[in-house]
Specification:
By secondary structure, this protein is mainly alpha-helical. It is built from six helices and no strands.
Length: about 220
Amino acid sequence: MMKTVILIVLLACVAAFSPIRQSMRSNSLSMVAEGKSRSLPFLNKPKNLEGLVGSSDFDPIGFSEYFDIKFLREAELKHGRVSMLATVGWLVQQAGVHLPSPDGLYDVANPIDAFFHVGPSPILQIFAGIGALESINHNGKLSILNMFEGSDREPGQFSLPIYGASLLKGKTEAQINDIKLKEIKNGRLAMFAIGGLVHHTIVQGTETFGTFPLWGQ
């Protein structure tokens, strides 16, 4: 008897919510058809995001109307790629996997403390290496005003073999778009992930910043 009652209640819940969902879906489609954003249907559809892989018409502040969309997409891709590497590196560091260092320079498990423990020299070497690669990739044009000036390069795609652009050769357009969609989505998730890892580590307490003050104490 009890099973029957539960089944009836569940069916009633499904029946109650189904028309609402269908109504919401139809309203959403209607608003999109009227030129509204898919992700924020109460706002107008952004003009310059059409055709971008991974676009959900999300641009509530309107950056795409004031800045070069190629520069914005490249910035998103680069931040996503760096965040994916940073998230993996953070977890590896915390797991105790480090570069060999007889003097213990790289043996600090806490990633925030490790950054300050190594000193300025290794950090400057990393920044110099990244800066050199950026300059090579963009022929010295690094600002938002001239990065894509006189270039038909697709944002985020570089010719140097170390970046793996050759992996897209021989693939169909649908396969390429699928790979790009996976990259952009994983990059967006990784940006949230590395932000969460940094804040969680600070809250746990570090030698650099000390114990985080807990609320209510």
